[in-house]
Amino acid sequence: MNKQKLIRHIIITIVIFFSCYSFIHSAEVTIPKIDIGITPAKSPKDVSATIQILLLLTILTLAPAILMLMTSFTRIIIVLSFLRQALGSQQIPPNQILIGLALFITFYIMTPVGKEIYNNAWVPYNQNKITLDEALKNSIKPLRQFMFKQTREKDLALFIFLSKSPRPKNQNDVPTGVLIPAFIISELKTAFIVGFLIYVPFLIIDMVVASTLMSMGMLMLPPVMISLPFKILLFIIVDGWHLISRALIVSF
User: Fold this and answer.
1) pTM, entire model
2) Element containing residue 93 per DSSP (H, E)
């Protein structure tokens, strides 16, 4: 009986296999072909289009660095990180929430700059009124104006001195490669100043709780466990997220 069942299963398997095989061969199955190649350019327009694509890919590669270091993102994310450290809430809010909040506040702050770039660079270039070089110059002007407003003269003078460039007569004479690092360290200093001011009230709460526990003889109880609820309560009472967001936006 076992041999008959085994033979029956083998016969059924063979029948199913040949049925599927005949169905696959009878049906018309089309497999797409993907072909990627490089062909010689036939006109100067083809070369120009290729260069534009390469420039676009380069800009997309540098987009994260441009977003982080040439906008308000640096100051915002550092201040929010200081706030979480001052609260002592470990990983709450998580990094994804802080980065998302910093990104949307950055988009809100940089909207006027983006509109100016769109109207003065992209629209004329798309309508073939200006060349690519003119579009790039028009797109960097609003960013330069934004960075100049937030950059300290001391930091700008430092990088001009280190680059051994001649003393600029006005803002137009300052190279963009000198302006960007000066803007970055200015933003870092401003963010650390704001972070220090955020730390002060929470530090006072920690000191009061620690001294109270010591006076009560409760040395084995970690002060952080007692001070954390009070710091969160203080942050809620003063509507901390509203104050922090308003201070960050107004600072620009």
Assistant:
1) 0.70
2) none
